[in-house]
Amino acid sequence: MITVNGKSISDDQIAREAQYHPAPSRDAALHEAGVALVVRELLVQEATSLGLIAPAGPGQDTPSEEQAISSLLDREVSLPAADEEALQRYFEANRERFRSPDLFEASHILFAGRPDQPEERERARAAAVATLEELHRDPSSFGRLAKERSDDPESRAQGGHLGQMTRGQTTAEFESCLQSLSPGEICRQPVGTRYGYHLIRLDRAIRGRPLTYPMARERIAEYLGASAWTRAVHQYIQLLVGKAEIEGIELRGAVTPLVQ
To answer: Which pTM value belongs to this model?
Structure first.
């Protein structure tokens, strides 16, 4: 059992919280859950001590803990806006990040096979390998083979054509393959994703263009503001930890702002 300034956090609470903290092991998930609940309890206690959680008057609603925590952080964590020099300095140091998105037109043939079904997955891989050998002998057969064999009903009728897509609209594996191909080129090996195995042809690519500073400024300001807020909240929580009596958990000096 964990206690925070005498307030108990039960093992049952920790076990319920653990489902929201994916980790390599159950013990790691339970520890992360415990840290999250300690942070929440510290913030709730501080909000209560400052009168941000108080009994409601007649006809009023009692503020939720989430509202009180938000009010607490708004009150206690203040951030100056990043100045123009800092924004420009970040832009100059990270120009490669600021581009309009690449635009792709692509086609595929899908052989469905879920990762949790090994036999189905292997059949899909074998079918993809065999079909890819045919495509390497006759690349012009892509559309016909897509109509005959693809397990994607939407693109199958179009000869495998998927239309236009940008970053983030497909899986990371599919996107990585598109980035490696030249227009008209077919992948050299089947591409495995959570859906199965894909044979991919890049039909057209329009590479993104560098953005100017005025075009990127708002995005930079938002990013730097969010980063500064995260650091400031982390420091504030560390202050609360430093003056609290916490038993039953080792925080390991790595408390993060686990606040939604």
So the answer is: 0.58
